[in-house]
Structure formats: C-alpha cells, structure tokens
C-alpha cells in the first residue's frame, strides 16, 4: 500500500501544488489521480518515486517512510510510464525494453528473450522488435513504454497520462489490453489523467483533485457516480453519470421473459433477427449475456427495433429477453430498495 500522510508541496516561489493530501493506494490495485489542469496530480505522482520531495507530510510504502530509503533501490521497485513514452530514440524497440534488466544484472540474452515476450504481452509482434521508436505509431510507442516499465517487474507502476497522446480508437484498444494485463499482473498502479472517463473505466479507486491541490473525493468509480460529495465532483464526473453507473451493475440479477415468437433463430438457437409483421427481418442489434452490464442491456433495449434486448448463453443460444419497460421497472424497484 502507498500512503500519502498529510502531504503538502509548496514550490519555490510560493505556489501550493499539493495541499494536505491524505490518500491510500491499495496494493495490487489501480488508483487514478484525476482533476483539472494544474491541480497537483503529477506532483503527487512524482512524490512516490522521490523525483519530488514533500514540503511536509510523509509518503509511505507498506508503512515505511520513503524519505529515509535509498533512492536507487526505491526506484528499482517502481516502473514509470509517461505520456510521450520517453523511449530511447537510438535504440531498437527490443533494446528499449531490455536495457533496464541488463542494468539490473541479467545477461543480454536473457533480457532480450524476456523483452520479446513482454512485447508480445502488450500486443506487439516480433516484427516490431528491430524497429526504432520513430518507426512506430503513437499507440505502438505507448505499448513499448508500458513493456519497458514492466521489464524490471516492479511491484509499483507510476503512469502519467500514458494514453493521452493517441486517438480515441487506439486509446480504447490500449485500455482493454491494459485492463487484461493488469488482471494478470496485479501491480500497484498510480495513474494520472485529466480524463474522467478514463479514470472511471480503469480505476479501482479514483482520487479527484480540485484546484489548489486539494482532494475533492476518493472512492470507487461507482461511489463517485452514484454519490458525488459535492457540486464540483458531480459536475466533474459529468451529466450522464446515472447511465454510466449502470456499467458497474451486472445483468445477472435481471429477470428475463420467455423468447417471443417474433424472434427468429437459426438451427443452433442463435438469434438472427426480428420478424416484423411486414415480413421484413430486422437485426437484433446485438445480444447480452448474464456477465454483461446493465448499461449494455439498457442500450440494447433502447436501440432495438422492437424495444427488446435478447439474452444469450455462452454458446450464443438465445435464452430470454428483457423488454425496455420491464428494465425500467427493475431499475425503479432497485432504486426504491
Ligand atoms: N517545478 C515547479 N515549480 C513551480 N511550480 C510548479 C512546478 N511544477 C509544477 N508547478 C505548479 O504546481 C501546480 C501543480 O502542478 P502539477 O504538474 O502537479 O499539476 P497537474 O495536475 O499534474 O497538471 P496537468 O494536468 O496540467 O499536468 C501547478 O500550478 C504548477 O504550475
């Protein structure tokens, strides 16, 4: 666990970047620091690896004040990923990833083998290994940056706007891959972003900062969406927080009705469309499983040509439907209970 204990940072010249922040970043989880520009996120992040020292207060890792620890040793256990990936331009992708393990005492051969497998884990095939950073797209460079930070297998990762330099579609893909990777690796991660949607999507815990370096609220994404502490947080998490909070609710408990005769199925029982009175067959527009979220079911029910979302089992066979008015009743009953 990383602990900020009443931390203050005043830069020379008098600006208070971080103002009495107390925060816990749980081990093995992703904590996202988010807030408007200049509210002290990067300063806070850099206090974890002592690139910046607090003016007062303490930062502790597993209960030990890092101020008394050997800086090089401390940083060995902390990977660091930054926005522009910060790769060495004159080294190949493979050597970018393998350099730190070699410095830590691995043979070049061991380090390169490990680097290749790490590159694969972040979605880069062997053909990229020989290229130089300038021969990669922004998203590919970010992946190398993540692989490089992971190469020393640090228990802690600091990530400063790691996904912001790429377009929304690439970012979406990187998010998915990163979540999958984190599920396997269970690193303790502190990530800075100014994008609340990214914070809500990736964070196990989200710490919202406000101007002046103060914490506005700390909670799970669901807590922030359903119970914002004040107007600032409510405004910051955005207007459609009601619908977004449904992303965190499972469709498993949702009562389903029997399949209507208007749902066309193939021989394996998979839905193929809606049979309209006119004889036309309209696409179902997608299906859900019990493992999906209420947000997806709501979206399917609203966008379905007949106002009905179709549930399928793991083989893709239709096993029930949810009509949008039943969904509305379910949500209303849930709110009342
Ligand atoms: N080296 C420095 N000297 C003086 N002031 C600084 C220094 N670094 C940052 N600041 C100030 O401290 C405040 C917090 O900066 P910080 O970079 O931590 O914010 P941030 O939330 O990460 O911002 P952004 O989202 O724009 O990157 C800002 O007002 C900034 O101008």
Strand fraction? 15-25%
Q: What is the second-level CATH architecture of the largest domain?
A: 3-Layer(aba) Sandwich
The helicity comes to: 25-40%
Main sheet record: 6 strands, mixed
**Radius of gyration over all CA atoms, rounded:** 24 Å
What is the CA-CA span between the terminal residues?
35 Å
Number of E-state strands: 16
User: What do we call the CATH topology of the largest domain?
Assistant: Rossmann fold
The level 1 CATH classification of the largest domain is Alpha Beta
**How many domain units?**
2
Strand adjacency order, main sheet: 6-7-8-3-9-10
Tell me, briefly, the overall form: globular
Ligands, deduplicated: adenosine-5'-triphosphate
Low-confidence stretches: none
Average pLDDT for all residues: 90
Number of discrete helical segments:
12
User: How are helices and strands ordered from N to C?
Assistant: EEEHEEHEHHHEHEHEEHHHEEEEHEEH
Care to describe what's here?
The protein has 337 residues and is of the alpha/beta class. It folds into two domains: 2-248, Rossmann fold (3-Layer(aba) Sandwich), CATH 3.40.50.300; 251-336, CBS-domain. The protein is built from twelve helices and 16 strands. The strands form four sheets. A six-stranded mixed beta sheet has the order 6-7-8-3-9-10, with helices on both faces. Strands 2-1-4-5 form a four-stranded antiparallel beta sheet, with helices on one face. A three-stranded antiparallel beta sheet has the order 11-12-13, with no helix packed on it. A hairpin with a 3-residue loop joins strand 9 (205-210) and strand 10. Helix 3 runs parallel beside helix 5 and helix 4 (108-121) crosses helix 5. 34% of the residues are buried. The structure holds adenosine-5'-triphosphate. Residues 11, 13, 15, 17, 35, 37-43, 194 line the site of adenosine-5'-triphosphate.
């Amino acid at each position: 666990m990383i602990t900020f204990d009443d931390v203050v940072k005043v830069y020379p010249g008098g600006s208070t970047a971080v103002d009495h922040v107390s925060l816990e970043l749980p081990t093995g989880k992703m904590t996202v620091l988010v807030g408007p520009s200049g509210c002290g996120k990067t300063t806070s992040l850099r206090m974890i690896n002592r690139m910046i020292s607090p003016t007062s207060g303490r930062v502790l890792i597993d209960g030990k004040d890092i101020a008394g620890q050997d800086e090089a040793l401390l940083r060995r256990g902390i990977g660091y990923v930054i926005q522009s990936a910060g790769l060495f331009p004159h080294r190949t992708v493979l050597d970018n990833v393998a350099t730190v393990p070699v410095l830590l005492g691995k043979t070049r051969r061991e380090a390169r083998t490990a680097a290749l497998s790490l590159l694969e884990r972040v979605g880069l095939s062997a053909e990229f290994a020989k290229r130089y950073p300038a021969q990669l797209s922004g998203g590919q460079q970010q992946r190398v940056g993540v692989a490089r930070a992971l190469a020393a297998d640090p228990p802690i990762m600091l990530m400063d706007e790691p996904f912001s330099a790429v377009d929304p579609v690439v970012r979406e893909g990187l998010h998915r891959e990163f979540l999958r990777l984190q599920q396997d690796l269970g690193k303790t991660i502190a990530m800075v972003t100014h994008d609340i949607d990214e914070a809500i999507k990736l964070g196990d815990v989200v710490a919202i900062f406000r101007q002046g370096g103060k914490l506005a609220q700390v909670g799970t994404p669901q807590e922030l969406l359903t119970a914002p502490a004040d107007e600032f947080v409510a405004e910051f998490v955005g207007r459609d927080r009601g619908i977004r909070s449904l992303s965190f609710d499972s469709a498993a408990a949702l009562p389903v009705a029997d399949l209507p005769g208007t749902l066309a199925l193939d021989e394996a029982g998979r839905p193929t469309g809606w049979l309209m009175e006119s004889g036309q067959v309209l696409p179902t527009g997608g299906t859900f499983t019990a493992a999906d979220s209420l947000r997806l079911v709501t979206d399917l029910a609203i966008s379905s040509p007949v106002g009905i979302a179709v549930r399928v089992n793991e083989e893709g066979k239709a096993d029930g439907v949810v009509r949008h008015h039943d969904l509305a009743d379910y949500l209303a009953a849930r709110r009342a209970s």
